[in-house]
Amino acid sequence: MRALLPLLSVVRGWRVGAAARPPRRVMSLYRTEERGHPHSKDYRLFFKNVAGHYISPFHDIPLKVDSPKENGIPRKKARNDDYKNLFNMVVEIPRWTNAKMEISTEEPMNPIKQDVKSGKLRFIPNIFPHKGYIWNYGAFPQTWEDPYEKDNNTNCTGDNDPVDVCEIGSKVLSRGDVIQVKILGILALIDQGATDWKIITINVNDPEAEKFHDIDDVKKFKPGYLEATLNWFRLYKVPDGKPENKFAFNGEFKNKAFAIEVVNNAHECWKAMLMKKCDHGAISCTNVHVCDSPFRCSPEEARSLIESVPAPSMSKEVSKEEERWHFLD
Prior knowledge:
Blueprint: H1 5-8, E1 30-35, E2 44-49, E3 54-55, E4 69-70, E5 73-74, E6 86-93, E7 101-103, E8 112-114, E9 116-117, E10 120-121, E11 126-127, E12 136-139, E13 157-158, E14 164-167, E15 178-191, E16 194-203, H2 215-221, H3 225-235, E17 246-247, H4 256-274, H5 299-307, E18 325-326
Signal peptide: 1-19
Family: Belongs to the PPase family.
Cofactor: Mg(2+)
């Protein structure tokens, strides 16, 4: 068995080689496969289900966690109404990191990759006193902010992406983790005339999760965090020479009920897209598990799509952006 440990430690997703860490229940449902080197344009992080079949993290991971039990195990100390407020989050960017990683909506099977702007890999600047992202950042699967539909609350269309999620728990998560979160509130960023919702959540397995049920609990138990979040989103593009970002509702965070309504609407928009009831533009809707979707493919077809992608290089692009700090008034 001792000789097998080095091999087991490289199988990312199952994390069976991390002897000191107990297994997390949600992670047993999904695993990830890296191709290429992080911080390279060829880097991709693909997702697989428990059977080892490739899946899309955008389309094949369910949005909602409907059962009070997980793998037959009742959850501990959860309020009854919390069962209706459990959602799966795909972690794209761990807290304190700078690389702008995201689900690639236009590539088959939607792997996570690093965003590229003007031919260069994108890194979010450090704006004092914040190092990189100040939450675990990611997206809700099976949601879509429709760029052809105007939001009644903001009077702006969607940004053509899954709904963004900021997870405020105590643990620094890993890229590709799929965790279950409670929705607490929402911020409406207006990005180049499009609505870019930011959902505030907490990992249901966080040691302090029992204290958090709505946005006022964040104000109470993590004072200053929402103000820091607002300032982060307001300023993060300024070092690149762009103006400060704007917000709907004068930057006010809306509560859990408002946030859940936004997420549910984005889920309906996603369903319409996957059923070919609206224009999906360049988005790849290929999926393995969405019943009745005209874009559904077999596991074998999904594997063929991924294996047809050219082999990535192992070169790593060097960037100083992760080390540079910006001091703004």
